[in-house]
Amino acid sequence: MNVFNTSFEVSLRMLIILNTVQTRLSIDRITALDFIAIYGKDFGVSEYNLHGDNDYKFGEYTSKREIVSQAIKELVLRGYINPRCNKSGFTYSISKNGVIFCESLNDKYAEDFTEIVKKANAVFLDYSDRKLTHCINEYAIAVLRDEKI
Fold first, then answer.
1. Which residues pair with 89 in a beta bridge?
2. Is the dihedral of CA 63, 65, 71, 77 positive or negative?
3. Distance from CA of residue 86 to its chain's centroid?
4. What is the four-CA torsion angle of 11, 15, 16, 19, rounded to 10 degrees?
5. Distance between CA 61 and CA 81 in Å, rounded?
6. Which of 40, 55, 67 is nearest to 146 (CA)?
7. Which of 45, 82, 112, 138 sits CB 3.0–4.6 Å from 40 for a disulfide?
8. Is 43 exposed, middle or buried (0-12, 13-18, 19+ CB in 10 A)?
9. How many C-beta atoms lie closer than 10 Å to residue 37's C-beta?
């Protein structure tokens, strides 16, 4: 069974993101932080890309939101994250059960991902969700044009 970029794998990373950031996040912010953490070297928050160097990463970004959306539904149903509706849409936070589950994750990938999420969140903390998505899109255009970043 291939778990790479399935809703299961994305669910684990989402829990780590919500556990690390410990604030309510929109689906767009979760998606962006996940992408930035996976390709941390490209965004200056890691010395390497967790999933290696990949020429098709931006194609992956466009499909990631759909996978994240499915993962959110599963995590809400399992009681690992809490949704909240506000005037701008839904935001999500980790539940007590989600925190307990995260504490059981004790492998190198989870540790590395957590550290990169901390750095990514610090670097992009003042970016709105829209600005963060715009930043990723601008970077994608620059890469496609083979421009230096």
1. 86
2. negative
3. 21
4. 170
5. 22
6. 55
7. 45
8. buried
9. 28
Please name which of 63, 48, 55 lies closest in space to residue 7, comparing C-alpha atoms.
63
How far apart are alpha carbons 122 and 141 in whole angstroms?
A: 24
- Cβ count within 10 A of residue 130: 9
pLDDT 10s digits, 23-67: 999 999 999 999 999 999 989 999 999 888 876 676 677 788 889
HSE value, Cβ hemisphere, 13 Å, CA-based, for 113 = 23
Residue 76's alpha-carbon distances to 55, 88, 114, in angstroms, are: 33, 19, 21
Tell if the pTM clears 0.85, that is, is over it.
yes
In this structure, which amino acid lies at residue 89? Answer: G
